[in-house]
Design goal:
By secondary structure, this protein is largely without helices or strands. Helix content is 7%, strand content 2%.
């Protein structure tokens, strides 16, 4: 953790200490505590490569945060504000991002298997080479998103408007037809 992130606090505790205790929690160490950063103000935080697996970040503000290559599997980001966040090559397996604001976020190369992105706002997001297999994307907003070489196979796209997106290299669900993109 570098720069501003070293001095950030949530509920009177230093972010650095919360994350150290959380790593112990993820390793099964009885002295560790699951990170609860719900509602935390972490805009611009450097969390690159951090282990936030199973952490609670509901309604957290992470706009412009660097979470590239972070381990975020099973974390709960419901309703989080993550506009322009950098999540490139992060592990988002089984992560909850329901209702999250991910406008213009960098999600290139993320593993987002079995995640929940229902009603998430992904307008203008970079989703290049991301894996969304078995992900719930019901009602998500993908307007202007880059889905080049994105895997949407076995993805729940109910209520998602894919019109206007270049889907030529996107791996779509079996049996998907272009007319369905205008639901």
């Amino acid at each position: 953790m570098r720069g501003l992130s070293r001095i950030m606090k949530h509920n009177g505790k230093r972010l650095e200490d919360i994350l150290e205790s959380h790593v112990k929690f993820t390793k099964g160490d009885a002295s560790g505590v699951r990170a609860d950063l719900s509602g935390a103000k972490l805009a611009g935080a450097n969390l690159h490569g951090a282990n936030l697996s199973y952490a609670l970040l509901r309604e957290a503000t992470l706009e412009g945060a660097d979470m590239g290559e972070a381990r975020l599997g099973g974390a709960d980001f419901s309703g989080a504000k993550m506009r322009r966040a950098d999540l490139r090559r992060a592990d988002l397996t089984e992560t909850i991002l329901a209702g999250a604001d991910l406008r213009e976020a960098q999600l290139g190369g993320v593993e987002c298997f079995r995640a929940d992105l229902s009603n998430a706002n992904l307008q203008g997001a970079n989703l290049r080479a991301a894996n969304f297999r078995n992900t719930n994307m019901r009602g998500a907003n993908l307007y202007g998103a880059d889905v080049t070489t994105t895997i949407l196979r076995e993805t729940d796209l109910d209520g998602v408007d894919l019109s206007g997106l270049d889907l030529t290299t996107t791996l779509m669900p079996r049996g998907w037809k272009a007319e369905e993109s205008k639901k």
